[in-house]
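Re-running the complex after MR caught last week's input typo. The corrected sequence lines follow. Everything else is unchanged.
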Amino acid sequence: MKTPNPIDLAPASAPEDEMYYLNMGPQHPSMHGVLRLLLKLHGEEIITAEPVIGYAHRAHEKMAENRSYIMFLPNTSRVDYLSGMIYNLAYCEAMEKILDIEVPERAQYIRTIANELNRISSHLLWFGTFLLDLGGVTPFLYCFDDREEILEVLDRVTGSRLTYSYGRFGGVTMDVDDAFLDGARAVLKRIRERIPMYLSLVHDNVIFRERCDGVGVMTGDLLRKYGITGPPLRAAGVAYDVRRAEPYGIYDRFDFEIPTRTAGDCMARFEVRVDEMEQSCRIVEQAIEGLPEGPIMPGRMKKRFKPPKGEFYFAVESARGHFGMYIVSDGTDNPSRIKLRTPSFSNLSSMPEVLRGTFVADTIAIVGSIDVVLPEIDR
Amino acid sequence: MPKTLAEMLGSPMLAVATGLGGVMGLLSFNALFCIYLERKISAWIQRRMGPMEVGFHGMLQTVADMVKLLGKQLITPKGIDKPLYHLAPLVVFAPVVAGTSLMAFSGSFALHHIDLGLVLVFTFGGFAVLGIFMAGWGSNNKYALLGAMRSVAQNISYEIPLLLSALSVVMLTTSMGRTVTVGDETVAVQGLNLFHITMVQMDRNVWFIVLQPVAAILFFIAVLAETNRAPFDIPEAESELVAGFHTEYSGMRFALFFFGEYSNMLIGCMVATTLFFGGWSGPLLPGPVWFFLKSYALMAVMMWVRWTYPRLRFDQLMRFCWMVMIPLSIVNLLVTAFFLKVF
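Corrected-run output:
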């Protein structure tokens, strides 16, 4: 787990009185919101690192218990504000499974387009902030420029830029028009033009390579131990993607690859995410191509839903990994319990082990590379 | 030979007063202009507009910022080491004034004309790290302390290639002629005299960057590291150490650090101009204009680098210095010495 360290600054048995604590966060420029890392340091080397979470806790799970199934819908896009669409539609699909609602074809396709556009925008933001963490300010503004296009396209059909609440049990709120589809095509064209530029500017940069190669290696047992999913898992060579492993929606109809790397370091995670953007572009392209005419909702829907008694689990692939919803129903129109299994939480929980023995500068790079979103962790 | 201010004014005291005023004026203007330039350059690199509101194309933005900084409360944190904390901004700032006054702006005029000018400039330049360490140590803040630790290691290491690459130019200067003729005067060349370095380049009609390209690149990289500029800005790496050594400084105290940083950049670029780009030499325009044009062109390159590259890690930075920069500068020095001896 140790990064290559040419100058052995800290002997393994550094005396206790030479160590000190550094409280990184919750207000810190690169803690991605309100993460607090309690670091025990010897010089710049990290002896122990302990993530302290809960600063953005909004009790979403508790809120679910006090409202009806349909009233919980807006909450879901607020769990992870960077890929709200994916979470929102995941909840809809979970409820559709439970309630046995047939979703019209057109709505399925629209959902897929929206999901993948959201995934690209999330990855773009990660790209920018990761480079910001490494000290490169300029890529951040380029990525935001691209992301803005996606947000505008989604805004056109959903009416909001981040917390979409676009899904309804059975379909989506609004139908897409030609302008949306043209916008989506323009986004794809733009992203595909820009990714090679990003790669040549960033990926080929010698400083960037030095900072990422072999840093924060997460492989083997560690992944299993902490339930790490998403790009960090795929960067370690495991081609696990819920879209392929247990296809939901209509993902089984599209032709796309699961990008993987074997190194499991920051560079591998970087490359996996960039490749995923391209794969998402492919899915959107196919979905636009095959978008059928028809209704976007299965007729008139009820206002109250009473799912059968029981426990249900439904998982999707969010931009950060395996997102699961565990819904316990007691037969009334209020959920008895909704547990959200968020990928960032599991990914972050591996940090004490991964960060040990690295430098302060690596900490920033590693935490940045696993792409945590704090509201999703705290919920 | 350049006339010194004291000779022109006839009184040393008057010269000190005027010189100090002039240098302070230059440095103040430099800081205001450089912040504006930095913002504009970063904006152009990032496809933005930069400041546009205050004055024509935002030209008065930095003036407004300076007024804001002047009006800000000076927050003094608890548990500081008072003398160190309060002295640190001055220790960063004062040597900068002294260093600037030694510069060879023009062939006909000088604030000081000292044969050891280059040595003195580096001496004053070395003070900056002291001030940074005082700030970091005295602030009672762990981020500041980490920044200070990084700064000391970095600045001391990079001073070696800085001096070694400058030394190869000094060797060239002394070897390319025992005397230099400017106008009707013939003087013995002193290798460490900034004016003589420029004059030799003028006399032989060659910029030393042509003869010493490796030294020029090493010198420029070392100046980047010495002035804590990206990609070597680890003492104040904002994504890691919040603001590094000046985390606990606010208002004008912070402004003095900022001032010191930009002034150090200017000094670094002015010395580079003198050593490698022929100083004030150039056609048509008067000497000082050429001198500042070249210096600010180098500044623009520094800013370009800053907004293009990510930051190195601490141990990589040190490794780069000790494994690449220092061996390369020593080899360059030896090769220079060898060729000077043979030819």
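None of the earlier attempt is carried over here. Chain A has one domain: 60-378. Chain A has 15 helices and eight strands.
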